[in-house]
Amino acid sequence: MIRAADLGLLASLGISEISVYRKLKVAFFSTGDELASLGESLKIGQVYDSNRYSLYGMLRDLDVDIIDMGAIPDNPELLERTLLSAAEQASVVITSGGVSVGEADYMKLLLAKHGQVMFWKIAMKPGRPLAYGKIGHAHYFGLPGNPVAVMVTFYQFVREALLILMGQSSPAPLPIFNVVCTENIKKQTGRTEFQRGVLFPDIDGTWKVKPTGAQGSAILSSMSLANCFIVLDE
Questions:
Q1: pLDDT of res. 105
Q2: Residue 70's closest CA among 88, 45, 49?
Q3: Which of 10, 87, 165, 200 could disulfide-link to 136, CB 3.0 to 4.6 Å?
Q4: 131: exposed, middle or buried (C-beta count within 10 Å: 0-12, 13-18, 19+)?
Q5: N- to C-terminal Cα distance for the chain?
Q6: How far apart are CA 52 and CA 150, in angstroms?
């Protein structure tokens, strides 16, 4: 990544041109009959498609070329056309929803038909149904449908993968440090949990963390209020 100081350093050496990686093209879309677009009235059983906006914001922070393919209903033929079109246009395809085990979860089946599934299901919460594979020459990340799970899996898996594809052979991981939690926390054994928290300096100058409240994977406000993850190992 060329930072402001790097630009100045190059100029100080009289260097006007350098070789760089081209911008990474990332295509993404949401899946599900239950999704409504902004501006539409919600029907019974529908929710607004927040995942595309969260993904857009996280991708924008990485400065990639973004291709928004929209929200696609649970129609196998339409999903297949959209997936193949995305793989033709981009080096990375990201979807949200459709990778669980429900009757209308088609993405894993389409990936098996047109590409390959490298892994599926992770011992983590939220984000267990995460899938990764290849579709043509494109990398594919199938993120869960729940809004918080989309963001957790992006930060834990997709972000670093995109940085490597952008030319950073050893991208700096998200920082992890040990602090005291101000409240009791419950979790199940056997999987790593990413609860949402607020990291803050206490009056004695030490750093502490507190949960944001209810931790359901559909409660996107828990991410909006948070400035960190509370990572609880398996």
A1: 67
A2: 49
A3: 87
A4: buried
A5: 34
A6: 10
